[in-house]
Design a protein that fits this description.
- It contains three helices and no strands.
- It has one domain.
- The longest helix is centred in the middle third of the chain and has 31 residues.
- The chain is elongated, with a radius of gyration of 17 Å.
- Helix 2 packs antiparallel against helix 3.
- It is mainly alpha-helical and about 120 residues long.
Length: about 120
């Protein structure tokens, strides 16, 4: 039981970090980047900086919510007696799959907002 609580706390902290990234991106006045490996575009390269930042920020907030949802689903499934390995695979798929969905959405925003 202690391991489950520790896992839940760590995942919630990670999800809050993701949501915090989203909030800071929404409030930013300059264009934000998707992740640290890519330089954010210049303001001149974007059609609408505010919308660009808002959509990127909402993407990160949603990712944090999905992470918490995956943890809650795993905990509920575990309490109901579901297969632990299957639940862990589901959680891993949720976290890693979310990253790929975010990459796809970022490329879509690139096409939509780049001049």
């Amino acid at each position: 039981m202690a391991g489950t609580v520790i896992y839940f706390v760590i995942m919630c902290l990670a999800a809050l970090l993701m949501a915090g990234i989203g909030v800071s991106q929404i409030k930013s006045g300059k264009p934000v980047g998707f992740y640290t490996g890519v330089k954010p575009p210049d303001e001149k390269e974007l059609r609408d900086v505010k919308a660009w930042n808002k959509k990127h920020g909402m993407m990160w907030i949603l990712y944090g919510v999905v992470m918490i949802g995956g943890v809650l689903a795993q905990m509920i499934g575990s309490a109901c007696g579901c297969n632990e390995v299957l639940l862990l695979i589901l959680e891993i798929f949720t976290v890693i799959g979310g990253i790929f969905v975010m990459m796809w959405y970022h490329m879509r925003l690139e096409k939509q907002y780049r001049r």
